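Slide 14.
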Amino acid sequence: MRNESLLQQKSRALWFKKGDSNSKYYHASIKCRRMKNEIKGIHCHISDKWVEEPNTVKELVKDFYKKKMSVVEDIGVRLDNVEFKELIDYDNMFLTDPFDDKEMKDAIWNCDSSKSPGLDEVTFSFIKKHWGLLEKDVMGAVKHFHSEGKIPKGCNASFIYLFRSAKNIIE
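Slide 15: predicted structure.
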């Protein structure tokens, strides 16, 4: 705030010293800009005529934006007559069945060992090396999530993402 005031004072002092150096070019540019931004008239859809009277133009513009900005009660998306593809029962069961232990281990072993599954930067190499210690907890957490639909309390933001084999979905 203080700097702005100081700059303003310096600017005024410089203006008093040098005078108004605004050239004809500057004034012509400003005039051109004003004319370009000016609304001279508007087409009225109600009367289907061009209107130039300032108060009528103001009212038409005001009404336009009033309608544009007003809240519409029903803004829901309509999906009438839209056909959605459905999964066959086998695909649905495949996608919702719990993971078995072999499938989860295969998913982990198929991940690049240098990749980190979460924010804690623990790599898959570490998980694979210490699988004997981690297996019970990892399997338990994934199974709990699948059955309950929520992550157990105490888990942090680090997640292990397990992907089912893409070839089963493609086939």
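Speaker note: The helical segments are 2-18, 24-37, 54-69, 89-96, 101-109, 124-129, 131-148, 166-170.
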